[in-house]
Amino acid sequence: MAFDATFYATVAFLILVAALIWIKIPTKLNGALDGRSQRIRTELDEARKLREEAQLLLADYQRKRKEAEAEAAQVLESAKAEAERITAAAHADIEEMIARRTKTAEAKIAQAESQAVAEVRARAADVAIAAATDILKAKVTGPLADTLLDQGIEAAKARLN
């Protein structure tokens, strides 16, 4: 019987398949594939859990960020209101201080004016007394002149001051 190469290849293949079945290679291959699929399934489950935890953390951080932004806005608004209040109080204090200083300056001016008027009157009285003294000395003579002159000077001083 003449066998060709195809026959030998087929017989060799069948012997190989029988040997593989006898060594239980398909079972080992299935076991390895099952183990690998189980590891992949476990990794997928773990990845899913990690993703859910990450989403929860992200949601928590987003909520905290929104709360922090709201709190920052509230603090900013409060600071603006406080600044406006302080500015208004400072303006009121400055206006009050200016009014007090103006009043004080006006009082000092009035006092200086009164003092200047008094000084002018006193100087005018001194000049008038000196002029009257010179006129009376020139016109009145003798002991009567000295007595009249002294009495007139005293009377003029009393009236002018």
The total tally of domains equals 1
Helix count, DSSP H or I runs of 4 or more residues: 3
What gross morphology would you assign? rod-shaped
Beta fraction: under 5%
Organism: Segnochrobactrum spirostomi
Transmembrane segments: 6-23
Coiled coil: 37-85
Membrane topology: Single-pass membrane protein
Topology of helices and strands:
Elements: H1 5-22, H2 25-139, H3 143-160
What does it look like?
This protein has 161 residues and is mostly helical. It has one domain. The chain is 94% helix and 0% strand. Helix 2 runs antiparallel to helix 3. The model has no long low-confidence stretch (mean pLDDT 86). It is found in: Cell inner membrane; Cell membrane. InterPro entries: ATP_synth_b/b'su_bac/chlpt, ATP_synthase_B_chain. This is ATP synthase subunit b.
Fill in the keyword field for this structure.
single chain; mainly alpha; rod-shaped; 161 residues
Summed up:
GO terms for molecular function: proton-transporting ATP synthase activity, rotational mechanism; proton-transporting ATPase activity, rotational mechanism. Belongs to the ATPase B chain family. The protein is mainly alpha-helical and about 160 residues long.
